[in-house]
Amino acid sequence: MTSAQIPEEPVGVPVRQLPPATVSRLTLYLRTLNGLLAEGIDRVSSESLAESAGVGSANVRKDLSYLGSYGTRGVGYEVGHLSRKIAQALGLTHEWRVAIVGAGNLGRALARYAGFESRGFDVVALLDADQMLVGTEIGWLRVSDADDLETVLAKTRANMVVLALPGGVAQSVCDRVVDAGISSILSFAPVPLSVPEDVNLRKVDMATELQILAYHAQRLQFPPLDQTGA
Ligand SMILES: NC(=O)c1ccc[n+]([C@@H]2O[C@H](COP(=O)([O-])OP(=O)(O)OC[C@H]3O[C@@H](n4cnc5c(N)ncnc54)[C@H](O)[C@@H]3O)[C@@H](O)[C@H]2O)c1
């Protein structure tokens, strides 16, 4: 069966539970595929998809097989079909409406970033507790009062929340967000947060990422003795 003959999955329902590394790579493939679509290219081989996404071609074939997509030898994958399939598996065919809580340096930068919309995320609200910020315009958003969190989330039909708050208030705001019925939360706060099991919480920790990078940089600079032949 060619990829073009594979029946469509119901919108937004992943074919099966995907390994986390596959989910990360799918986002890379999707970016590449969307670039190809924009250039009017309608076929891609697993090798060139692998190369442009910066992963191995065996990874590509394995990852795409989870979605039921097996390219045709010598013909490759149909770009439009594959991009829709990945978007479905990643849940990107849903309407994601993002509210950012905390309009400080980070929240403002995120709110002004124009790249979310093209990736399927509509930033619909920006909230802060500082009355000097409430009512000011940042990008195309007016900062709402964090006291009105529940009302703003309901009014804007937000279904995803980004916490760009100081650590000290993050848990209490997170609890309110969860009580308001939000089950997808991305936190930048430098503290562990607890949420109920049915809530997806992702944490972005740049300092940890930098530490990991430092570790790898150090290994490159000072390779272990057995690799130098010494
Ligand atoms: N994870 C990362 O990679 C990363 C990188 C940078 C910053 N951070 C963290 O992100 C958070 C935000 O960073 P920042 O530089 O924007 O800080 P900031 O101090 O500039 O902004 C924080 C904002 O939160 C608001 N706030 C405080 N309490 C609130 C509440 N109860 N409800 C709503 N708003 C409230 C403040 O008024 C302020 O505007 C910090 O916790 C910081 O440590 C994380």
Question: In words, what does this structure look like?
Answer:
The protein is of the alpha/beta class. It has two domains: 3-89, Winged helix-like DNA-binding domain superfamily/Winged helix DNA-binding domain (Arc Repressor Mutant, subunit A, Orthogonal Bundle), CATH 1.10.10; 96-208, NAD(P)-binding Rossmann-like Domain (Rossmann fold, 3-Layer(aba) Sandwich), CATH 3.40.50.720. 44% of the residues lie in helices and 16% in strands. It has helices spanning 20-38, 46-53, 57-66, 79-89, 105-112, 115-118, 149-156, 167-179, 206-221, 225-228; strands spanning 43-44, 77-78, 96-101, 121-128, 137-138, 141-145, 160-163, 184-187, 200-203. The strands form two sheets. It has a seven-stranded mixed beta sheet with strand order 5-6-4-3-7-8-9. Helix 1 (20-38) packs across helix 3 and helix 2 packs across helix 3. The radius of gyration is 21 Å and the shape is globular. The termini are far apart. Residues 1-15 have low confidence and may be disordered. The site of nicotinamide-adenine-dinucleotide has 25 residues, from helix 5, strand 4 and helix 8.
